[in-house]
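Regression check, 2-acetamido-2-deoxy-beta-D-glucopyranose case 467:
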Amino acid sequence: MHSNIFAVTAALAATAAAFDCNGPYFSFYNRRGPAMSSQRLDPALFPGQQSPHMHDFDGGNALSADVTYESLQDSGCTTARIKPDKSLYWRPALYWNGNGTGLYPVPNSFLKIYYKFGDSDNTKAKNISEFPEDFAMMAGDPFRRSEDPENKAGIDWTCIAEDYSRITAKGFPTGFTSCGQGLTTQLTFPACWNGEKLDPKNPNAHMAYPTNSGSGVEACPEGFQAARFPSIFIEFWWDVKVFDGQYSANDNPWVLAQGDPTGHGFHADFRNGWAKGVLAKATSDDGYCNCGCGCGDDQMRECFGAENVNDDADISTCAAKSALANETGVVEKLPGCNPIQDGPGEAKAMSGPDCTADVPAPGGDDASTPATSAVASQISSIASEASSAISSIVAGVSSIVASAEDVQPTAVSDYLSPTVSVLPANVDSSDCAYATTVTVTPPPVTVTVTASARRHYAAHRRHGRHN
Ligand SMILES: *[C@@H]1O[C@H](CO)[C@@H](O)[C@H](O)[C@H]1NC(C)=O
Ligand SMILES: *[C@@H]1O[C@H](CO)[C@@H](O)[C@H](O)[C@H]1NC(C)=O
Ligand SMILES: *[C@@H]1O[C@H](CO)[C@@H](O)[C@H](O)[C@H]1NC(C)=O
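Current build output:
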């Protein structure tokens, strides 16, 4: 019954939304059914590489590890309702861990995405900006394992029974053995910007939530008035029927992909892919789109133009162009280094061949840092950077061995302005093995690069004789 998705889900969402359903915002659904793709990627915090844990993605199908605004524009389709919205929306995959036979990915049933641009009194906020190209942000903290007293993102979870009765909690709720209409969570992204790019080491630093006083960009906290964007609010719905009756009312069988059995570590990311001008028009002071939380097909067409609204068939056939999807399906352990870590303390980023060696997560609630699985590849890129620096001075380096101690789970390469101090020119040719140290700030990250030039020099000398 794809045809009446709007009618059905608008009714559900109306009960879910804890705010006036009429006002300066619009909302839309992605497809009913699975996410566009499940992949161990995070094109905001871990560009160009595999990410520490599994995410479910929706949005533009040009999804890739190193996606840019430009490359997203080449998406052939999007699972967002509005065609010019090639943005990416992702969140950790959810698993069912209820009978000790493996971790079962919980099927997505749909997302409802709202773009809200009202002041606290529900009037249109002035001076709403569209997102810049290559803009990304996140909400929530993957390392959190206990209730956040502030909870600015407003994360909570609800089991919605067949008769629409609801059990809600800040973390995973208990007290039921089925959720006929679905298990849901929701969050709001921040909307006030400090003008900087997302810093993978501190991915929440460039954004803040609007306050209740002031209007438009003036409601933004000091330091975050470079722009006020629409507030993106998302309801995430999962279909958990397949697990009905297989857990008791006291059990918590759910776990998030980063090894979170509490639900407090739910988070989501957004990467802008809106075609230029479209969001600006839909949120402009005159003639903004205001179908609220019950936008129907016709209203979306009115707001964005009939040709710009995906129908369900467009969406359900939209698959990711490239798929690194070899860790999907039932798994014995969570993909990546993600042992299940209960609260209430912050979870630690894990590393090592058995995913046991723990690495201290840097302090601070905002420091939701990438985990160590990325560090190895960063060490090797430091090594190769050092290698080429050394090679340019000493003609020929046969091997570079990089090792690191006390590596913080951060994006090491961001710190690297390599002060590669290589041996002076008067290197003793009878012993060309030497070591040099690349010091990466801040401490305590020190990468020792040992370069052995001996064999190459020998080869070079032999070669020289023939010449
Ligand atoms: C809003 O934008 C208009 C036009 O760019 C500008 O004149 C006005 O000062 C802005 N208002 C605020 C509150 O920033
Ligand atoms: C465990 O749960 C899964 C998912 O519901 C089910 O498919 C499987 O048959 C169950 N296995 C056992 C041994 O109960
Ligand atoms: C999945 O594919 C990637 C890229 O080819 C590879 O690095 C990784 O080891 C694979 N994972 C598994 C579990 O096969």
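Comparison notes: The mean pLDDT is 78. The two ends are 79 Å apart (CA to CA). No diff flagged against the previous build.
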